[in-house]
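User: Could you walk me through two proteins back to back? I'd like the raw sequence and the structure tokens for each, with a short line separating them so I can tell where one ends and the next begins.

Assistant: Of course. Protein one, sequence then structure:
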Amino acid sequence: MAPRYVLSIDQGTTSTRAMVFDQHGRLAGMGQREHRQIFPQPGWVEHDAAQIWHNTRRVIPQALAELGISVADVAAVGVASQRETFVLWERDTGRPVCSAIVWQDTRSHQVAEGLLADPGADFFRSRAGIPPAAYFTAPRLSWLMADRPELRVRARRGELLMGTMETWLIWNLTGGPDGGVHVTDVTNASRTLLMNLEQLDWDPELLEFFGVPESILPTIVPSSQVVGTAVGALAGVPIAAAVGDQQGALFGQTCFEAGEVKCTYGTGAFLLMNTGADVVTSSHGMLSTVAYQLADGSKAYALEGSIAVAGGLVQWVRDGLGLVRTAPEIETLARTVDDSGGCVVVPAFTGLFSPYWSSGARGVISGLTSFVTAGHLARAVLESCAWQTNDVVEAMAADAGVPLKSLRVDGGMTSNHLLMQMVSDVLDVPVLRPTTSETVSLGAAYLAGLAVGFWSDMKVLRRNWHRAGQWDPRLSAERRDQQRLAWRAAIDRTLDVRN
């Protein structure tokens, strides 16, 4: 009997999940394990890469067992990852030589700020499509090798390998020290600040600038292509896709045409617009990035707007302030009032990303009076996510030259109906949620399935997309303008407290 499923591994910021999808793109089985969040100093965020690999080995059989299938039923595996997070490990032993430094980490923001002045953002945008920022891999990798010079020496001797998290997992899935395949796909490579966006290969000038030996870097491959065969729990199954999580969500949402936009609401929030086969250079704080590349070489680019803190703000309200016991309770609390009472929250916990790109910005709560209650603060938190989305959408529309007609959404926060209504109100367009909300994993599965012929073409994938929810704008233009003015004033205060 032919394999009936595709398995995807979604290595995210807070957990690793294995998900099994059938031919209709329906989620059929899942395993999930969280990993530790390590905060050695304020602004530093790390993960234990060995723990993540251990968790991956546990969630795969869990997902298969939930569905009651064997490895023989799996046609291919795709791996989605949290992109800019990276780790260094020993080539011969597979032992990490440092913690994985996470995309949220700001330890290299002074390095990045210096690069904005010398040699300037244009130098990096012309090659990599992105500005120098602590968000991307290269400044943090450069910082690490300056902080621990012995790692640079070992790297130049060929003893170490570097990779973002999909690279780390694929290397281990295909044998690790015993023949593991060392690859990254074009979407993840485009987030390192080391890849030439036009040529889709490592850029010699950028490598030299950051002092990164090419010998430690993985080979760049298409997002959809068989790169190796798994050993262990998935023995014999082809590893057929790798993709950054947000590009995976774009593909899972079947945004295959230029101008189509999705937003994933998770720890952060990430909007991507497919811009077709050509790079669109941003002049409004967006990122130019690769959307995907197929095995035949065809590719699409995207504009991206990145929001550092979305669901992470709700977690802070839960864990830091103790206003709610669970994340979903914030909607109930916010519905106890009709508005935010003039309160505005800008969650610049680790600086501001798109379109401001200020690593030194810090969070602000403005408009506080004795009238403000926990309900008002909860509502301001949700409104913050909506207005951050609007900042990105306005900048993206200016770059692309086309207004937004609708927004496809996914991620855990889309279960918050009040938030989705706020997003629709602020953007003044319909917001659409698909039946399959796990679009990151679905995108990785789609890319893997295409590579092995499990799905014949992208038209089939289009037919799998079905709408589960829609929110239409209800806010008056006058009220929207009032909220916009309050939001802009709070953003100005946030930027004024940079350090």
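----
Protein two, same layout:
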Amino acid sequence: MGILLWIVFGALVGWVASMIMKTGGGLLWDIVIGIVGAILGGFLMSLIGYGDVNGFNLYSFIVALIGACVLIAIVRAVRR
């Protein structure tokens, strides 16, 4: 059940991040951006002393969303 929850969580976070950053790419893109964004967001938050993504809750959603938006910005910068 854990992997299914990560896929759903990633899709939701990726979709919201894509809406905020005004990108497109489809469901697979949203899932990848959401999952990698959750990992990146957890890493960034641990660097400044806060916890990481640890479940399906509002704090984890916000951390993952921050990470996904940072990831989209990095991808945009690299593509240019």
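The first helix runs from residue 2 to 21.

Let me know if you want the two compared in more detail.
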